[in-house]
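Handout, section B. The chain below has 140 residues.
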Amino acid sequence: MLFFFTSNAQTGTLPVEKIQKLLNKTEGLKYVNTMGNDEKITRQEITETTYSFYYTGLGKYGSKWVQESTNIPWGKGFKQFTMEGHGNARLTVCVFRFETDLDFYMHVQGETGNGKSTGKSLEFYILTRDRAEFEALIKQ
């Protein structure tokens, strides 16, 4: 697995409209989750305070899932690094580590995520060929 550390102590807001265009390019691509199961990216959405990751499990009993992160503290600083996508070299995983907590929900698509968790990290997928463009966007 290849890691690319950018470890920026960034503050401020991100150009979410430009990042959204990069996220859109990943729709329909497959990857392997941390449990070793095949999944497919359905959609990714980012705003100034939220990130939603829609995916489908590709196993015999696969479901459509949503991971939602809210109250993302972009303006309070973060560190960021990228690594090769799990099971798909065409994808790069972008990981953000925040100084303060963000809220996290995970639920089956169509249901409400009422089980809130908190954490200090967030990750999303871009195409590997877009990595340099992505890194330039988050440095703005």
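Note. Residues 3-138 form one domain. Compare this with the example in section A.
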